[in-house]
Input
Amino acid sequence: MYDLRTRERALNLVGQGRSLNSVSQETGISRSTLRSWQTSPPKRATAPCPRCDIPARPPENASAYAYLLGLYLGDGCISAHHRGVYYMRIVLDQAWPGVIDACEAALRAVRPTNSVFRVRKQGAYAVSSTSKHWPCLFPQHGPGKKHNRRIALEPWQQEIVRAHPWEFIRGLIHSDGCRIINWTSRLVAGVPKRYEYPRYFFSNKSDDIRRLFTDALDLVGVEWTTLARGSDPFNISIARKASVALMDAHVGAKY
Output
């Protein structure tokens, strides 16, 4: 006997175009069982979409949504599947299992009745969920790469970010950011002494996404600077002691 989550994950792998043989090898479920599940897939009640309601309303779990929005803008994508169903995929480095768990929890919180599953990739996990309503909830979805098109938040998304700026910042850092330790040495009484200091970086090719990040930093009083990679303003740096302390209190290093 297999639980509902196991069945859904296996069927989603098959739905991505994988062969029954490869899915069987990955999951340990026999091909005959997979074939039987294809003819009688598990049924699950579907929650209504708050954006499709009349009048439209924001997602109920605004804090989880703000975090998921940050993850999506950094390392996420939405792609059409079939019968009007969409995949939300967020690819995260396997070195940070806590971030992967947090991503899965946010997906479940935003669409609690939709399936969520993980697919292992080279050095990473794609945390995915299926729903007909991901484009409603993330209107930044569109053709092509995010840094090649305009990215702007809808008014209802702006309200969520203003109410939960730290969750939004944390999602962006967990996707396209990092906390590192820099060091320098100085002569003290003729003896070289090493000094270490932490700083945060956020790197994204999209001017719009970097601006959304810095606007959120301004909301919470974090000072930042732009560092260019060649001629491109690719990195946002947070290095001032008070601002790093704020980031440590509300975001912290990946885990």
Observations:
- The radius of gyration is 21 Å.
- The chain has a mean pLDDT of 88.
